[in-house]
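User: I'm preparing a small set of examples for a lab meeting where we compare how different chains pack in three dimensions. I only have the primary sequence for this one, and I'd like the structure in token form so I can line it up with the others. Please keep the answer compact; I'll paste it straight into my notes.
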Amino acid sequence: MEEIDHLFQLRILELGSNRLRVMENIEKLTNLEELWLGRNRIKQVNLCGLKCIKKISLQSNRLTSMTGFEGCVALEELYLSHNGIEKMEGLSTLVNLRVLDVSSNKLTSVDDIQNLPKLEDLWLNDNRIESLGSISDAVAGSREKLTTIYLANNPCANSPDYCSTLKQIFPNIQQIDSNVYG
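Assistant: Understood. Below is the structure token output for the 182-residue chain.
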């Protein structure tokens, strides 16, 4: 990521599909609100303390960890699908997060999101999550706010009472996977 460090007023940066391997030279982009780096080869998150950023997409990269977002307290939307992430971590400080997409990873449990009071959309489909039991505690802080959850193609979605259990956990749920409820 070269020749961008002088763009102080830049609000949106889209560098998808560029074979980027590292996140660098963005520390001076303090007004950046959206960063789109999907379909690259990034292995590690390095946001250089960007505190104003509201949307980040690192879909289809080579991430194996979710650490590196802790200082992004203004973050509202985080898209990390199609990576190799095995554990949810580094999210507890993201109290403004409304959308979290960690679908198509290697997750076996839902962690570190119990204190996210504004979380509305949670995409966990195509992972390895075994049990619905842990989800209730995992989303304790956003239970009333959550309106959309995707868990399809996880072992827990094969439970015969899958939808009814999720409706009990989330009283204001409007969508479970592709099923929309009135």
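A couple of notes for your slides: Helices lie at 133-138, 162-169. Residues 1-182 form a domain with the Leucine-rich repeat, LRR (right-handed beta-alpha superhelix) fold (CATH 3.80.10.10).

User: Perfect, thanks.
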